[in-house]
Amino acid sequence: MLEPTSGMTSNQPVRACVSCKIQKRRCDKTFPACTYCTRLYWTVTDILFFALEGMSYANTEVRVRRGGATGQSLPNRYSMSPRAETSLLLLCVRLITQSHSAFVNVLPAQTPEYLAAKRFYADVEAAGVNTIQVLQAAILIALYELGHAIYPRAYLSIGVCVRYAIAFGFDGNGMTQGNMPYDWIEAEERKRAWWAVLIIDRFVNLGTPTRQLVVEDPESTTILPMDDEAWDSGVQGSNESFTLSSPSSLSMGRFARFAQATYLLGRVLRHTRDHTADANFHEEEAVQLRRTLHALVNLAQVEERVRQLEFCTQISICYSALLILGDPETVPSSENSIIEAIAKVACQIAKDFLLGLIVPLEKISPFMLHLIYHSAVIYMEINQETRSDESAQALNHLKKTLRVVEKRWKAAGVYLEILKAREITHFT
């Protein structure tokens, strides 16, 4: 529990809480939450907000260390008197990084942090705040809902992200030369936020590839996010900017690779929905997409070895896209070997995760779950036909991985329930 700073009474902060400030209500300033907010279950949020509003950090200089011994102050928008949108963003960062194991008997959609974030976002949006921090907070909320299978809210929240970004010029069309901010950090934040919107819009459609995307595919000239190492160190780097059509390079970074994989996934989803094209052209496009996806996987694996980076998420998206193209209902049976090969790779990723050879549990991405689930379905169907020990063991490895990941992302548990239902009904 936070304590008031010296010179303050235990129940009388110097400022009104953020919720009352936005709604222009009279606030009794009771600590840790005013009477109105307590009645609306805002306690957790206001504990955070009162702290951010200067109670326990009044004389603290916030800095972030970026690269070597160079300490750079955060931009003014993250300073010691944060605006409502900054408080909202920090709350959403806390939301997305918390382990759900702390709420064993509480559903992800009912945790105090989630409910507080949703209510506070609604307040900020109603107040007409139009900053990049609000969009970033909305993305984190949508990602939380995706990772914990909070549907249909996740799908609706993604639509909110898209429309907010477009309305206030944070999308690709708004990033014209005349609208580009002078601050390169702000420009990069906008770029990364818009790519994040594109990513979650495509990921949510993996289960239903024929559903219409909210955002159209970006142009081939769209600029990719800068290298993550340079971004994390606060260094602008060279003037070279990679686009979707840029030649292959080993200095793009993980987020840029993720953006490339997402772009190809979007093209695969569009290809799956398109039934108007000539049959020959449709098949030629599928062959080209498979070739490009395999090339991106190989390139990511090379960069992974050369730069000692982890590309499991990017590779998982590529393989998920290949599995959509390799649906047994839409391709010849001769290509089933490709599907089984991808499932084998996914099983190896699952084994490496269980052995602790790749990312730890708290850092595993929810974007890997669909590949693990889809591969489990493949092995389940193989096992129903062959009853082989190899397929049974692979299926067990994938299920065990989902059970472990469920401690971090509840969507893994939902996938397990679906697998159980398929086993019972032998649904194929």
From TrEMBL:
<keyword id="KW-0539">Nucleus</keyword>
<protein>
    <recommendedName>
        <fullName>Xylanolytic transcriptional activator regulatory domain-containing protein</fullName>
    </recommendedName>
</protein>
<feature type="domain" description="Xylanolytic transcriptional activator regulatory">
    <location>
        <begin position="154"/>
        <end position="231"/>
    </location>
</feature>
<dbReference type="GO" id="GO:0006351">
    <property type="term" value="P:DNA-templated transcription"/>
</dbReference>
<dbReference type="Pfam" id="PF00172">
    <property type="entry name" value="Zn_clus"/>
</dbReference>
<dbReference type="GO" id="GO:0008270">
    <property type="term" value="F:zinc ion binding"/>
</dbReference>
<dbReference type="InterPro" id="IPR050815">
    <property type="entry name" value="TF_fung"/>
</dbReference>
<dbReference type="GO" id="GO:0005634">
    <property type="term" value="C:nucleus"/>
</dbReference>
<keyword id="KW-0805">Transcription regulation</keyword>
<dbReference type="Pfam" id="PF04082">
    <property type="entry name" value="Fungal_trans"/>
</dbReference>
<keyword id="KW-0804">Transcription</keyword>
<dbReference type="InterPro" id="IPR007219">
    <property type="entry name" value="XnlR_reg_dom"/>
</dbReference>
<dbReference type="GO" id="GO:0003677">
    <property type="term" value="F:DNA binding"/>
</dbReference>
<dbReference type="InterPro" id="IPR036864">
    <property type="entry name" value="Zn2-C6_fun-type_DNA-bd_sf"/>
</dbReference>
<dbReference type="InterPro" id="IPR001138">
    <property type="entry name" value="Zn2Cys6_DnaBD"/>
</dbReference>
<dbReference type="GO" id="GO:0000981">
    <property type="term" value="F:DNA-binding transcription factor activity, RNA polymerase II-specific"/>
</dbReference>
<keyword id="KW-0479">Metal-binding</keyword>
